[in-house]
Write a structure and sequence with these properties.
Blueprint (H helix, E strand, L loop, with lengths): L13 E6 L7 E6 L10 E5 L2 E5 L8 E7 L10 E2 L8 E5 L6 E7 L3
Antiparallel strand pairs: 1-2, 3-4, 4-7, 5-6, 5-8
Length: 110
């Protein structure tokens, strides 16, 4: 076979390669690269009455962890994983003034 081959877009955290060494056949190999492991900051903004948090797409696969505590309680070890956060890079939280404090962090275990 001759010619050029290309995919329209490459999914985040994946590489691909074409193998045309077998006559009459084109094999596509897709391999996960895993998310970036470099430190990154959460970006926050208010959208209506919700807090929008985002991070770079090359960090999809990281988990967003959160904890909310009563006024004056401060930070504890009671983190929970925000459901579905490892499959995206944007989440929204309703703002609840009754919460004394809220803490958020991105977490990744290779």
């Amino acid at each position: 076979m001759s010619g050029s081959y290309a995919l329209g877009t490459t999914p985040t955290n994946f590489n691909y390669a074409f193998n045309t060494s077998t006559n009459g056949q084109v094999d596509l190999t897709v391999t996960p690269t895993g998310p970036s492991q470099s430190p990154v900051d959460l970006v926050s903004q208010m959208v209506g009455n919700q807090l929008e948090l985002s991070w770079p797409t090359d960090h999809i696969g990281w988990e967003l962890e959160a904890q909310t505590n009563t006024p004056g309680a401060g930070l504890s070890n009671d983190w929970y994983v925000v459901s579905g956060s490892s499959a995206t890079n944007v989440v929204f939280f309703p703002v609840n003034p009754a919460n004394g404090s809220a803490f958020l962090r991105l977490f990744y275990i290779p």
